[in-house]
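Minutes, project check-in
Item: structure for the 367-residue chain
Input as provided by the requester:
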Amino acid sequence: MMSRGSLSPTQQKVIVALVALFLVSFYFLRSIYIPIFIAYFFAFLLNPVVRWFEKRGFGRVGPIFLMLVLLFVLIAGFTVMMVPRIYVQLRELFARLPQLMDFLSLRLGPVSIKYLQYDVFTQWKEVLPTMVPEVAHFPAVGILESVLSGTARALGAVLTVLMIPILTFYMLKDYYVLNEQLMLMVPRRYVSDVREVMHRLSLVLGGLIRGQFLICALLAAYYSISFTFLGLDMALLLGLLSGFLNLVPFVGSLASLALTLFISVLSGGQLTQCMGILGVFLVANLIDNTVLTPRIVGKKMGISPLTIILALLAGAELLGFLGILLALPIMAMVKVLGGYLTERYFESSYYREESKLEGKQSLSDKV
């Protein structure tokens, strides 16, 4: 006989089917879900600022409206003023990759021939044109071309973008009510667990998004200004890459330093410019490790550089540029959830209960 409050097999099957249908809909209706997730992301990002104003008697609606206007004006201004320059410099970078292979072949080709019996850099020069994507095929450029051609797809993209600030406004306005409504859907026996996990996620994602991404933005601005002052070609692009590669500890800084030095040498940069680039990176790492990270983030995510690289590669393969943006938050969520489930497992009676041993045997004897 089924106990009161338990689900019948039919009800369990219906719930499983609904959950499966909901998950499948993420793929087919991703154009609808993505703006909602982006809006909730902005709401999560801006809610501490709104709460600060709210505690000082300003309410929520006024600060929310002003912040959203300021935020999207900044995004629109960056898009109009900087994206064309980044686009041109990106094409220039791709055009210079064969020159980079020629430089490496000239310097390291004899070593490659000595130990590998062929010049690996010459072969890479022949392969690169087939591997490097055309910038004209990038999603942002495709959307721009669609807007200019007036297609229905472009109209849908524009409407989707316009919906994000509207959704963000209402999610921020009813942020706590929305979260409580979502909590009402959780079975009562799991409410305390879900609240604990959500609290940990808020701390980790807050440190990652509000902290680490802010540090990357500050470093990107510092690198771009410094490279422009040094007269380096593609200063804006190299500055943005150097700033956001800081997400990958140690490896990202080395990769961006090597790329920047190669571009400087290929552009005919003198020794003084190369020394200036080294100085810029040394100062950036010193400021990051002694000022920015301790004061803004407090502590690291605790994720190894190898895991971060694999997460970025997986995100790029699955969702392109959007996947790169979402890779680290998702990895942080997986780490928090996995850590909590591991704690609960070690605290469970299933783990703590010891098997009954016969006679005076020890556990090692049974093994």
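Outcome recorded: The chain is about 80% helix and 0% strand.
No further action items on this chain.
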